[in-house]
């Protein structure tokens, strides 16, 4: 018997589109299935001001293929020099949907991020006042903290004190990877959300390190032990409003992934929905896929869910390209390590 599932068109609440030829190459991979996405601002140089966000939005829309519709939801990269008035104006004009906090040095292109939180207190207070969410890459960067502990330590030593200092600040814990992240998100009120990637639902740290080093499974935050993957599966498939999809699809050309100092990031835009349907089916939770991909994110961001629908159909194993061409060389599509049977049919 063939099976199919119709859900509201999904959105991606954490996406890297890059710029130039890479942008043109990866945008259709997302726009094929997703109506909207929160666009990460970690370009070089970063998207710091409202004017830069408006220009980036125009560059994205300029390379959107004929016949595709897609709405980029822009973000600003928080720096110690960010002007609260510029942030408020960008929000008031409806251009910007969130501000992104990168602790300096935490991840790809985060060197302009925050070192001294005292310097961003005023802008965070302004954001709390106007209800503009702060998207947080939640890892400490101290070299003495083990890389597998950096998320849990961040929650205790940075995120929780920050939320206490600025009551009412709306926060999205981006790409959570630990049971501590799940528990903290669950304990927060309606002003706290958390995105979960597709790849962190599928791999644990063995995928990166056992049987030879696998650079295409390396991302930040790095995948953790199996118990953490299971906690993420439980959260994503629970239907709980605070958890929603942010793929963190993060393309890097293969020559920079397969490198002595390989870049962090998994490229999942191409097969994200097929992988998610497979994962939710494995967990007997297909009836909660729509909440995760299409309902909980808009509700957190106070946007209407999409009216359009997509249909996923189950059949013979799906074929998808192993790599896409990017102008900067091929980009490997994330390989979940098992066959996918669900495809987006319309
Ligand atoms: N997730 C990643 O491993 N990489 C992201 C940055 C980020 O989201 O931390 C990137 O921009 O490549
Ligand atoms: Zn990040
Ligand atoms: Zn990211």
UniProtKB/TrEMBL annotation:
Homodimer. The gene is pyrC. GO terms for biological process: 'de novo' pyrimidine nucleobase biosynthetic process; 'de novo' UMP biosynthetic process. The lineage of its organism: Bacteria, Pseudomonadati, Pseudomonadota, Alphaproteobacteria, Rhodobacterales. This is Dihydroorotase. Keywords: Hydrolase, Metal-binding, Pyrimidine biosynthesis, Zinc. Its cofactor is Zn(2+). It comes from Neotabrizicola shimadae. Belongs to the metallo-dependent hydrolases superfamily. DHOase family. Class II DHOase subfamily. Pfam families: Amidohydro_1.
